[in-house]
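Page 42, continued from yesterday. The earlier attempt failed because a stray header line got pasted into the input along with the sequence. Redoing it now with the clean sequence only.
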Amino acid sequence: MESTQVAAALRQISKGLTALADALDGGTGERSEEERHRDLMVAWGRRGLTRAEASDLFRRHGFSPQAAGGWVRGDWLEVRDDGLRYLTTRSVRWLAEQEPGHEL
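This time it went through. Structure tokens are written below.
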């Protein structure tokens, strides 16, 4: 089996496990992308995350780890000199607009 086939199979397994987890905890699995963005940002907070930690957080909120690169290009995340990833001011402002009174 080629590595691309293995990767495709693992993605299918991942989708199935997400559906199973939703069924077990009563979730519908129908959170909007905006809700997932908000939940990810709240979970992230002001702390810096390593690449692996950021990838794990993206996965837990239903995004591919590669989405972090798009967030960096879109000025939602930044990689600082310490090598950690942080939410940008843009992200913090957007979250405050979504949840008035919520401060990170």
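Notes: The radius of gyration is 15 Å.
Reminder to self: strip header lines before submitting.
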